[in-house]
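S.,

Sequence below, as promised.
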Amino acid sequence: MSDIERMKELVRILKEAAYQYYQKDTEIMSNFEYDALYDELVALEEKTGTVLSGSPTQSVGYEVRSQLPKVRHESPMLSLDKTKDREALAAWLGTQTGLLSWKMDGLTVVLTYRDGTLVQAVTRGNGEIGEEITANARVFRNVPLRIPFQGNLVLRGEAVMSYAEFDRINDGLEAEAQYKNPRNLCSGSVRQLDPRVTEQRGVYFIAFGLVSAEDGPDFGDRKYNQMAFLKEQGFQTVESRVVTADNILDEVQAFSDRISQQEFPSDGLVLTYDSLSYSASLGRTAKFPRDSYAFKWQDETADTTLLNIEWNTSRTGLINPVAVFAPVELEGTTVQRASLHNVSILEELKLGLGDTITVYKANMIIPQIAENKTKSGTYQLPDTCPRCGGEALVVESAGTRVLTCTNPACPAKLVQAFTHFVSRGAMNIDGLSEATIEKLAELGWITRFGDLYRLKDHREELMQLEGFGEKSADKLLDSIDRSRNTEFYRVIGALGISGVGEAGAKVLGRYFKQDIEALRAADEEEIAAVEGFGLITAHAVTSFFRTPANQEMLDDLLQFLTIAAPEAETGDKPLEGLQFVITGAVYRVPNRKALQDLIERLGGKAASAVSQKTSFLINNDATSSSSKNRKARELEIPIITEDEFFARFVPDL
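The prediction came back faster than expected:
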């Protein structure tokens, strides 16, 4: 293969990987593999003097294709040139003073404040145009909605998710719906159409740079002072160290030594010149600013021998593989296990027991297999479930091959399903640990969810179980009894429908007016139209309710429950017969969803797209060239501001 042909192949592979990573929040290759292919492409471009159209070396982000409003950045958001060589980083700094900080592994966001109030949040997007996520940013855990500084302020930072939050959310998802790393989960959370989903996800914002502060203080020609100013305004800022040629290598090592203790993911460091005037004098290239340089962790790798592949059965019957290999030391710890996630990854690696594999820690934290040097491909997939011995089959799920247990009575499915059912975000039944559930299942006392409410028939026997007595048995039964008076979202979230957690169940509850029967009768198209839901989740929901065994299980369960009725609708309906579409930032209510809820309470309808049925488009920027504004003008639909909406339709609020 010629150099040019190889470059074409690399461009195709890397563009597809970037599309999946940025647009779909999924990974088709590890960062380790991506960096290796990217570096190969850079080397070939330098060797041949040719840069192909669409080369990832010339782009700075993802192409925006979602339904979120699009916003053009006032100044381009460039990516950073990078190195994995500490000496090269030191050489780049030269005799200048710099700021060295964590390179946070999340989604870059630009915040804008006017008169001390947050008015806009935009993702980086492709560097020129990003997605407007103001409503979502308002529910980040630590973004100040108001700040002391009253001038126009623009800053940049990273939306990130902690490892602890990542584990918590992934634990509540089925294996096929789980995210591979915190960055993917964070990106999906930040770009939600429903801010309430974002709010449930625990996203943080860590500021790393000031873009502008109109009529702000004198920063004394130092970025260090800018970061101190942002901290004074209430922002959580990225940890930074002042470095010179004398201490930069020591500081790089100090950061490296602490990576395993970090709450948030980091994929390296960023070095920037401290002097504002010197930075401004350097300008930029087509892709990179010249005043900042990224240092990527040099992944410590080790070759080892694949000893075994363990399989664990989830509550949905998915059987998930974990690679077990001869212990190796990586980043100061002993590692001997790494998740393979699914059959597709196992097959792509062409694994066989005894193969020599290369392992590393992604972001110096999560063990991964980088490559299989032997590629024997001799591993035979199990044909039985490791938990129950039932038949195991490989099936296609959302484009991924997975191994699944076909036995509906598999204890693993039963125990994990009940563990989820009784959890705090679901039916919230205290006193039922996984070990207790397993014991009850072994005794045959629980085979379907309704059986929990029949446990009172086993009170005397329950008191005799190890760890129980009269008080603890009665306490458990009381907790079960209290859960009978419940809410729609708890029941739906407790059922374990793939892709439907607590937040999604609440969205369904609002849409279907807390009516489970209405949800059960809905078709796939109607559910896919619910904001925050797509075809895959809609299919999972309808498939669940169409399955006869699930229908019987739910009918049995519902006879024990009293589900709170939706609040009775009272008062005038001044918006009856009117349909509104809302776009852009809002100021008088917390977010667009709050305005949508108000419209619906007053009898109107809030739609997501402008059509002939639209009565008014609400947009505080009536001169915007957004697609919704253009469509409204084409259809001669009035565009009104938020203030005009309140003055015209709800003047008393």
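Residues 389 and 410 are 9 Å apart (CA to CA).

Coffee later?
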